[in-house]
């Protein structure tokens, strides 16, 4: 049978089947084909890989993230620095003190002349353009000297007569402040504390700072700082003790711990810490983390 004959027979067969209702069923479009199965499998396989990858990334992030500090009891709203001190975060007591000492010990002393120039021309100049005494309400405009207006000079919160007369201690900006001369002379090298006298009975007073006998122990005299700067002074002294391994008397330490708690760092003190870091390459950790004071047993 030639090709034309075969085609004719096939056509007749189809017509015959159609007339009797026996036509072959149409193809089932709902049946999955191999290609669709493969594509669907690939999609879910990819999704599974992505989920696994996300989990792995999340786990890695959780592991690498530094531990978060607990809120500070003295001021739960104070924003504690959780980036700079990750190595110190799990530590307490002497271990914490050692870790912080290592972080601050290699600062770059700039010399006393440069330190005072920086103090009076940049560091202590407030937004209103004047210098403010750390102990009183006195103000003076900077005049390019180390004794502005012949009224101010430099306060070493850790007195030079008690060891701060050598470098780099003498020029360490973290314990230097602008001060009115009479207030500086009155403070002298006395320890800090709460006085047991008032304006009429104290040896000296100016604004809310006083010199007189201690209300808490037998020290006489002691110097009481105005409330809005007590935390600044406390953190400066505790920094100096940590940095130079100098002990603080138990009586003074008790007061400084109280002052650190009652007068948290403000924006000025935080900015001052940043500026000092730029000048001498270290920070006062008790400004960034005042809660560390509570976690060190003794200074």
Describe the structure in your own words.
- The protein has 299 residues and is mostly helical.
- It has a domain at 93-295.
- Helix content is 43%, strand content 8%.
- The chain contains 10 helices and 7 strands.
- The protein has helices at residues 3-19, 34-64, 93-104, 112-123, 181-187, 230-244, 250-262, 267-280, 285-288, 291-295; strands spanning 131-132, 139-140, 152-156, 176-180, 204-206, 209-212, 222-224.
- Strands 5-6-7 form a 3-stranded antiparallel β-sheet, with helices on one face. It has a two-stranded antiparallel sheet with strand order 1-2.
- The protein is globular.
- The protein starts with a helix and ends with a helix.
**Which structural class matches the secondary elements?**
mainly alpha
Tell how many strands the DSSP assignment holds: 7
> Strand order across the biggest sheet?
5-6-7
* Assembly form of the protein: single chain
Look at the structure and give the mean pLDDT.
86
Report the end-to-end length measured between terminal Cα atoms: 115 Å
Order of helices and strands: HHHHEEEEHEEEHHHHH
Question: Approximately how much helix is present in the residues?
Answer: 40-55%
Shape: globular
- % residues in beta strands: 5-15%
How many individual helices?
A: 10
* Most strands sheet: 3 strands, antiparallel
In terms of per-residue confidence, which ranges show pLDDT below 50 for 5 or more consecutive residues? Answer: 2-61
